[in-house]
Amino acid sequence: MTGRQKAYYGIRAGALLIFVLAALVMPRGVPAGLAAGAAGIIGLLTCIGVNAGGPGERAGALEQGVRYEQARAPQGDWPPYPDDKVVEGEVLKEP
């Protein structure tokens, strides 16, 4: 386990411990609510950036890019017909 993983799990475990203590041990009221809320925010903030740039994210970004290119309108000259084939907005058919 890397140091980064140890720090991540340590922070998450600390946030969980604070949340459980606030819910079960501390007297009810504003301090317990603030402690539980802070623990929740800490737990959420540890998730930000955990997968940033990881293999799973890159694979998902590649798939998203492929789907985007399939759904995107064609780029370049539009409509893709030569000017002599278009008369008053209608494409002339080849005989």
Explain what this protein looks like in three dimensions.
With 95 residues, the protein is mostly helical. Helix content is 60%, strand content 4%. It is built from 3 helices and 2 strands. The protein has a two-stranded antiparallel ribbon. A hairpin with a 2-residue loop joins strand 1 and strand 2. Helix 1 packs antiparallel against helix 2. The chain is elongated and about 85 Å long. The protein starts with a helix and ends with a strand. The model has no long low-confidence stretch (mean pLDDT 78).
State the helicity in percent bands. 55-70%
What is the distance, rounded to the nearest whole angstrom, between the alpha carbons of the first and last residues?
A: 72 Å
The main pleated sheet reads as: 2 strands, antiparallel
Q: Which structural class should the secondary elements be placed in?
A: mainly alpha
Radius of gyration: 28 Å
Q: Enumerate how many helices there are, as a single number.
A: 3
Strand element count: 2
From the spread of the alpha carbons, the general shape counts as elongated
Low-confidence stretches: none
- For the residues shown, what is the average pLDDT? 78
Strand order of the largest sheet: 1-2
Portion of residues in beta strands equals under 5%
H/E series: HHHEE
What's the short story on this structure?
With 95 residues, this protein is mostly helical.
